[in-house]
Design brief:
Two copies of one chain form a homodimer. The first copy, chain A, is of the alpha+beta class. The first copy, chain A, has four helices and five strands, in the order H-H-H-E-E-E-E-E-H. Strand 5 of chain A pairs antiparallel with strand 5 of chain B, so a sheet runs across the interface. The structure holds a DNA duplex.
Chain lengths: 132, 132
Amino acid sequence: MANRRGSKQREAILRILQSTDIHPTADWIYDQVRKVIPNISLGTVYRNLNLLKDEGLIKEVTIYGSSSARYDANLEPHHHFICLVCNSVYDLPVQDENVNVSHLVSGRDFKIKFVKLDIFGICDKCQAKEAN
Amino acid sequence: MANRRGSKQREAILRILQSTDIHPTADWIYDQVRKVIPNISLGTVYRNLNLLKDEGLIKEVTIYGSSSARYDANLEPHHHFICLVCNSVYDLPVQDENVNVSHLVSGRDFKIKFVKLDIFGICDKCQAKEAN
DNA sequence: GTAATTGCAAAAGATTTGCCCCATT
DNA sequence: AATGGGGCAAATCTTTTGCAATTAC
């Protein structure tokens, strides 16, 4: 790993990401950091998100249908529930009984490393709204 | 559905997509169509991919780590296996025993509509290469 | 004839990069 | 002084769009 100096920009970005669970875009993070460091640039936000990703402190999340990358500081293994109405992304902890997928590749000589599971549907809040 | 006129461009794009299983990008499709219709433009490829998607004849596929959208004419429900070495995407038919995910949202009032499952690992061909 | 479709080029949106200055060691 | 990091703007990449010309019905 490259030598790394402290940087209040990078620390602020990490802190913001750790304090939310909405899996924000770089742009959303940019808006938040500017409240603390008004003259920070968007390029710096992207650069530091990539650095934090390289260090393994955050993860980049690809959500189907989202035109930009989203970021996540939740390092626990988890799945995602994506609401088709409000597009919110909820974390779902991995249960003891892990999702069993080996039967899906039976007959093929594939070595499984990890699984990415996204569940799409309607969240509680949007169901309540629809009922009105 | 909007009125739609025949178009040799759209037909060629669909035929190309139906004849491959590599889940290509718009750009790859563009290269292929140009062999048949040399002066077709990339804009036309994108426009027709979106029209075909609206008609439900093809699907757009979001692959984690791929910077551009990929397209798929396989309409059967299926999962994906993505090789971490060569980035190939393989289709995995949905088995009788569907992936059970309801326990993952137990305790939450979420209505599940569908599931997107990507399995990451190393494909047979790349395992063979590594062995050398 | 009319409306869908095209090619082209410009625009738009997301992300990366080059460059020069500033800050930290 | 050396070097990591930042700000800014330009560049890049993917995708969309406006427009005038063409084509299918």
